[in-house]
Amino acid sequence: MKILRMFFVLFLLFLFLSTITAGADAGEATNQVRQTTDKVIDILKNKELKKPSKTKERRTIIRRTVSESFDFEEMAQRSLALHWKKRTPEEKKEFISLYTDLLEKSYIKKIESYTDEKILYLDEIIDDEYAVVKTKIIVPKRNLEVPIEYRLMAYKGGKWGVYDVIIEGVSLINNYRNQFNKIIRQSSYEDLIKRMKNKREEEFFEEKK
Fold it and tell me: Whose CA is closest to 142, among 49, 9, 36?
């Protein structure tokens, strides 16, 4: 779990960076990531939404904005891997909902706690309907530079959706896939769902505090 927390702190950093730098030749995939970033920054800077009474509303808006660029359904399917085909339509729908809910809610507060990170958009590679956006996160307070790649798929209408994040050469999806597969093989798919539901309930009660 510590590894996953680290992944998502970095995974979501791009959404609330105070300084954005992109090359003049940035393509559509890079621009889409940057547009989502700008929207979230605007939300975090909104004085009205900063009020304690607006916490729930602010987080709902942020989650909705994040969903515009991240294909959580594709991420869920890739994370479950070979176990996906064995699921019924109802089970797939439930898994996607749990997966999305946990990823968004568990780390939404991380977005609100960083202010001075910077991101450099270094390169964009297009291969048919797939794209890789190479970036680097600069964390001045810790004197860190973290290379992060966003992998995206193209959809109709020119829209791109992020389906994986590679941090220092390690895939977020592969990391989840290995953990999910281990739980299912050692126990069962039902046990995995139970754990995910318990985690969602923990986050729910934390929000109520």
Answer: 9
Query: What single DSSP character describes residue 69?
Result: T
Report CA-CA distances (Å) from 108 to 17, 146, 155, 156: 14, 20, 26, 29
Residues 6+ apart with CB under 8 A from 181: 81, 82, 83
Tokens of residue 151, six digits: 């992998």
Q: Whole-model pTM?
A: 0.76
Structural domain count, the chain = 1
Rounded to 5°, angle at Cα 131 from 130 and 137: 150
Q: Which CATH number do you get for residue 200?
A: 3.10.450.710
For residue 15, give its domain range: 2-208
In the three-class reduction of DSSP (H, G, I as helix; E, B as strand; rest coil), residue 93 is classed as: helix
Q: Which residue has the tokens 């020119």?
A: 158
pLDDT, one tens digit per residue, over 111-167 is 666 556 677 888 899 998 999 998 887 877 777 788 888 899 998 777 898 899 888
Q: What gap in Å lies between CA 117 and CA 141, rounded to an integer?
A: 9
What's the token pair of residue 90?
Answer: 């109802």
Q: How far apart are CA 209 and CA 184, in angstroms?
A: 33
